[in-house]
Amino acid sequence: MIRAGATQAYTEELLSYLVETRGLLLAAVRCDDLRWYEIDDVEDLRTAERIFTKAGTLDPTAHG
Hints:
- By secondary structure, the chain is mainly alpha-helical.
- Helices cover 36% and strands 6% of the residues.
- The chain has one domain.
């Protein structure tokens, strides 16, 4: 995809390409019990850092 100039593709597009052209096998995994935050841009990153950071260190008890 990158060679074709697709440097701004969504993750889903890359995964679809790999499934269709390279035979990549995917499986879903539940993550209900994990803390996570989807990061799409710098603002999302800042939000995630606020959620998961406490006094400058990662806080394993944070909830997102």
